C-alpha cells in the first residue's frame, strides 16, 4: 500500500514562478475583521466581494487582492470587499512541502453549512470562517479565487444553478465553465446560503486560475478579478486596465459534472499523465486503475475535470467527469 508521501514523490514538482506577497500589511481590516477590507461608495449598488486564500497555498488570489489593495481600488457604486481567507495556512507555506498548507486542520472550502458554523466543533478554519461569516452574509456577488494542483487551462466553477451559468457567461471568461454541485463531504463558500438558492439574487463564482504557482495563473487571477469588478459595475474599465488581458476572450463552452470519481484505495493511478480538460471520445475507455478495478468513462465525449493524485486518500475525489452542455445563457445586469 502506497503512502501519500510516496504518491506525491512520484509526481512531477512544479516550479514556484511567482512571489508570495507579504500580506501582513493588510492585517488590520476596515471593519474589525483582520485581513478584510471593505469600501462603500455611498452610491446604491451590490456588495461585491473578492475572496483570496480560501485554500492557503493558492497564491494567485493573494497576489490579486494584494495588488488591488495596493492600487487603492475603490468602488464607484455599491460596496467592495477584498479579503484574504485562510491567512494562518498562507503564513505557514513551506516551499519544500508545497501541498501541505492547503489548510491546517480542515478544508475551509467544506465548512460553509450554517449547522457547522453554528455548531460546537472547533478548528483553525472554522474559527476563520466564523470571523468572515458576518461579512459574507451581506455579500451579493462573490468571486472566490482558487488555483489547481496541476497545470491546466483555467475553469470557472459556477455551481449547479442556472443563475451561476448566466453569471459566468456575463463575465465572459474563462473559456471553460463547469456546472457542478460541489462536494459530498461539506459545502463550499460558493454554495453558501443564497449563493446556491435559485430564488435569491445573490450569486457566486469560483475561478480555478491554473497551477498554483505559475505566472499564467497569476495573470488569469488578475484578469478575471478585474473583469468581475467591471462586469458587476463596481469599477470602470479604466480603473483596472493594467490588469486586463488585451486578447479577446474565446467563446465559452459549458461542461456539467456527471460523476465525481472517489478513490477506494491508495493504489489509484491514471493510465495517462492527465492534467485537466482532456476529452475522451468513447464511452467505456479506461482512464484509471483503483486497486484491481478499471475505471471507465461513463459516456461519450467525457471531459476530465481537475484530475490529481496530490491529495490522494481513500474517499478523496481524484477527478470529476463531465459532459458538454448545450445551453444558451442569458446576460445578467447588476
Ligand atoms: Zn482551492
Automatic annotation (TrEMBL):
UniProt keyword annotation of Transmembrane helix present: no
Keywords: Hydrolase, Metal-binding, Zinc
Start and end residues of each Succinylglutamate desuccinylase/Aspartoacylase catalytic domain: 44-212
Pfam family, one: AstE_AspA_cat
MF annotations from Gene Ontology: hydrolase activity, acting on ester bonds; metal ion binding
PANTHER family xrefs: ASPARTOACYLASE, SUCCINYLGLUTAMATE DESUCCINYLASE
Protein name stated in the entry: Succinylglutamate desuccinylase / Aspartoacylase family protein
Amino acid at each position: 500500500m502506497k503512502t501519500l508521501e510516496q504518491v506525491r514523490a512520484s509526481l512531477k514538482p512544479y516550479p514556484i514562478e511567482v512571489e508570495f506577497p507579504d500580506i501582513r500589511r493588510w492585517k488590520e481590516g476596515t471593519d474589525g475583521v483582520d485581513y478584510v477590507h471593505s469600501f462603500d461608495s455611498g452610491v446604491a449598488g451590490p456588495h461585491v466581494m473578492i475572496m483570496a486564500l480560501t485554500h492557503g497555498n493558492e497564491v494567485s488570489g493573494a497576489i490579486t487582492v494584494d495588488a488591488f489593495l495596493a492600487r487603492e481600488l475603490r468602488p464607484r457604486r455599491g460596496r467592495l470587499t477584498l479579503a484574504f481567507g485562510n491567512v494562518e495556512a498562507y503564513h505557514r507555506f513551506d516551499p519544500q512541502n508545497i501541498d501541505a498548507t492547503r489548510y491546517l486542520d480542515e478544508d475551509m472550502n467544506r465548512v460553509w453549512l450554517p449547522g457547522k458554523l453554528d455548531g460546537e466543533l472547533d478548528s483553525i478554519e472554522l474559527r476563520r470562517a466564523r470571523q468572515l461569516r458576518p461579512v459574507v452574509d451581506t455579500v451579493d456577488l462573490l468571486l472566490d479565487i482558487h488555483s489547481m494542483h496541476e497545470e491546466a487551462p483555467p475553469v470557472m466553477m459556477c455551481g449547479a444553478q442556472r443563475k451561476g451559468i448566466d453569471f459566468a457567461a456575463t463575465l465572459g471568461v474563462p473559456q471553460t465553465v463547469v456546472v457542478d454541485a460541489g462536494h459530498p463531504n461539506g459545502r463550499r463558500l460558493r454554495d453558501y446560503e443564497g449563493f446556491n438558492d435559485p430564488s435569491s439574487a445573490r450569486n457566486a463564482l469560483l475561478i480555478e486560475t491554473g497551477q498554483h504557482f505559475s505566472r499564467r495563473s497569476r495573470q488569469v487571477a488578475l484578469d478575471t478579478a478585474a473583469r468581475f469588478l467591471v462586469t458587476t459595475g463596481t469599477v470602470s474599465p479604466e480603473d483596472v486596465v493594467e490588469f486586463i488581458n488585451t486578447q479577446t476572450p474565446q467563446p465559452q463552452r459549458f461542461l456539467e459534472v456527471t460523476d465525481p470519481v472517489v478513490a477506494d484505495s491508495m493504489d489509484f493511478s491514471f493510465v495517462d499523465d492527465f492534467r485537466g480538460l482532456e476529452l475522451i471520445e468513447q464511452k467505456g475507455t479506461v482512464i484509471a486503475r483503483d486497486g484491481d478495478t478499471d475505471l471507465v468513462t461513463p459516456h461519450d465525449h467525457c471531459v476530465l475535470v481537475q484530475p490529481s493524485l496530490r491529495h490522494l486518500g481513500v474517499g478523496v475525489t481524484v477527478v470529476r467527469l463531465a459532459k458538454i452542455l448545450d445551453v444558451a445563457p442569458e446576460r445578467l445586469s447588476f
